[in-house]
Amino acid sequence: MKALDELTFDNRFARLGDAFSTHVLPEPLDEPRLVVASKAAMALLDLDPAVAETSVFAELFGGHKLWAEAEPRAMVYSGHQFGGYTPQLGDGRGLLLGEVYNEAGKHWDLHLKGAGMTPYSRMGDGRAVLRSSIREFLASEALHALGIPTSRALCVIGSSTPVWREKQERGAMVLRLAHSHIRFGHFEYFYYTKKPEQQAELAEHVLNLHYPECREQPEPYLAMFREIVERNAEMIAKWQAYGFCHGVMNTDNMSILGITFDFGPFAFLDDFDAHFICNHSDHEGRYSFSNQVPIGQWNLSALAQALTPFISVDALKEALGLYLPLYQAHYLDLMRRRLGLTTAEDADQQLVERLLKLMQNSGVDYTLFLRHLGDEPAALAVARLRDDFVDLAGFDAWAEQYKARVARDGDYTQEQRRERMHAVNPLYILRNYLAQNAIAAAESGDYSEVRRLHEVLTRPFEEQAGMEQYAQRPPDWGKHLEISCSS
Ligand code: AMP
Ligand code: MG
Q1: What is the pLDDT of residue 485?
Q2: Is the beta carbon of 253 within 6 A of some atom in ligand 1?
Q3: Residue 66 lies in a domain
Q4: Residue to substitute in 78, 122, 129, 266 for testing ligand 1 pocket (most ligand atoms within 8 angstroms of CB)
Q5: In the predicted model, is pLDDT for residue 482 greater than 90?
Q6: Which one, of 52, 144, 138, 154, lies nearest residue 100 by Cα?
Q7: What whole-number distance in Å separates Cα of residue 227 and Cα of residue 434?
Q8: Measured between alpha carbons, how far apart are the two ends of the chain, in Å?
Q9: At what angle do helices 378-385 and 366-373 cross, to 10 degrees?
Q10: How far apart are CA 386 and CA 404, in angstroms?
Q11: Nearest ligand to the C-alpha of residue 124?
């Protein structure tokens, strides 16, 4: 286990030079203090969890101190935002502090979000507020615990620095970890600014560092693009299967590693609603829950366009064609498991779709229904859950089909069924209202609720004693919280 001054840096992205990023120092927060830290994320850097409580920790991640070997950089990129191309974006309020490698030889980018103005801040102040930093922290660690690929979060540092949004709030920083912070928008930037040399350098960098196995293929860049398509199909299948709505799927928020990235107005579904829009600035519903699937493909096409200097259009099209079938296969596989099925039948897709439609019409809590479906043998479980539905005849017809399907699936004990289903059906998810309660307490200086909620969400599949209040449907006030982009 390491102390804070024992981290080993290797700043490979910084070495690409000034065409890719700009050197900027973090702007310190006033009176930095630890709000919450993730022991699991600290372990990725081999850090001793005890160091989170030291004042040096808050100073480092609150922008006051810097390792001598760190090379803080603001990255430049562009991207398609809500379907339109924005020629220049970049780290407007975040800095890549450097790459740290751990004892296992894995590299982790340390990215400090809310670190002050950069050349890419445009109209912004370079800051992040406590509210959005807590949301990003909780979401990263919660998604990871659910098995959904995501960037990680080491800690949130709070402060007394005033930051203006719709009202005065307090500035905070979140330290994000990922193997790379390169986005689809990085490739788009060099493509649209017509800088083929830098674009080739970027492609080499990504291939060497993140897709080295593609080097063995006859067309390494094509192999890499295929892998990106596959990872995105799998990530989005997991979002859909677990009811996660990202909210701002612009190409500058899409990672070339196929991990969930840049958390804004995201939400987990409470009641199942395919048309749910979590971002109240998204008037058209471009990034509604069910649109995430086609948008995933749209975003990959935008990346494909930027890769046309390296890969033929026909090959790119063929690779893009992998997305939907792969998505469907992953999604159906996960949903079968969530329903407790161990075998595959053609009609399973219809079984899932019928259930979702019934849940949609009756406003049934998506997570709790699937969790409780495994509590008891199928016949007893559906009888108990029936009361949640308005269309009783519809539900009864579905329940008959489900029971027959379960009977054909195999011979297992209820013990086995419960264990298998509970291992894929979380009891605890990051509901918006739970995050809101934790944020309200933190804004008045009490961080205990954020820490407790984080703890609960690190073991979402395990029933935890005394934590019943985290496994309930939201109260009425918590159902329709409006979350904006202004974070
Ligand atoms: P986002 O919607 O958070 O993905 O941000 C889109 C772009 O705006 C990115 O280039 C961000 O760095 C930038 N940005 C967002 N908030 C701020 C802020 N408060 N100050 C400066 N830049 C920001
Ligand atoms: Mg972003």
Answers
A1: 63
A2: yes
A3: yes
A4: 122
A5: no
A6: 154
A7: 36
A8: 35
A9: 150
A10: 17
A11: 1
Sign of CA dihedral 213, 219, 225, 231: negative
Give yes or no for a contact between 428 and 471, defined as CB atoms under 8 angstroms apart: yes
Tell me the mean pLDDT in the region 248-276.
98
- The residue whose CB lies within 8 Å of the most ligand 1 atoms, and thus the one to mutate among 112, 117, 120, is 120
Q: Does residue 300 contact residue 291 with C-beta atoms inside 8 Å?
A: no
User: For 27-44, how does the pLDDT look when each residue is reduced to its tens digit (9 = 90+)?
Assistant: 999 999 999 999 999 999
Rounded to the nearest whole angstrom, what is the distance from the C-alpha of residue 257 to the centroid of ligand 1? Answer: 21
**Segment 240-266 mean pLDDT:** 98
In a domain, 52, yes or no: yes
For the chain, percent of residues with pLDDT exceeding 70: 99
Q: Token pair 């080097």 is at which residue?
A: 215
Task: Determine the distance from the C-alpha atom of residue 303 to the mean position of all C-alpha atoms in its chain, rounded to a whole number.
Answer: 19
Among 157, 33, 107, 56, smallest CA distance to 48 is for: 56
Model pLDDT, residue 32: 98
Which one of 119, 154, 184 terminates a domain?
184
Quote the longest CA-to-CA distance of the chain: 68
Axis crossing angle, helix 184-192 with helix 292-306, rounded to the nearest 10: 40
Is pLDDT above 90 for 487?
A: no
Q: Is 252 a catalytic residue?
A: yes
**Is 432 among the domain residues?**
no
Residue 479, pLDDT score = 85
- For CA atoms 378, 381, 385, 386, the dihedral sign is positive
Q: How buried is 106 (Cβ within 10 angstroms: 0-12 exposed, 13-18 middle, 19+ buried)? A: exposed
Torsion over CA of 466, 467, 468 and 470, rounded to 10 degrees? 160
Domain that holds residue 405: 339-422
3-state SS, 325-384, equals HHHHHHHHHHHHHHCCCCCCCCCHHHHHHHHHHHHHHHCCEHHHHHHHHCCCCHHHHHHH
From 322, 312, 302, select the one nearest 222 (Cα to Cα).
312
The structural domain count of the chain equals 2
In the prediction, which pLDDT does 179 show?
98
Residue with tokens 């930095």: 32
d(CA 323, CA 248): 20
Identify whether 392 is part of a domain. Answer: yes
What amino acid is encoded at 261 in this protein? F
Q: Read off the amino acid at residue 350.
A: Q
The pLDDT-based confidence of 380 (bands split at 50, 70, 90) is very high
Protein residue closest via CA to atom 6 of ligand 1: 89
Assigned token pair, 136:
């990003």
What is the Cα–Cα distance from 3 to 367, expressed in whole angstroms? 40
Of 422, 440, 460, which one is at a domain's C-terminal end? 422
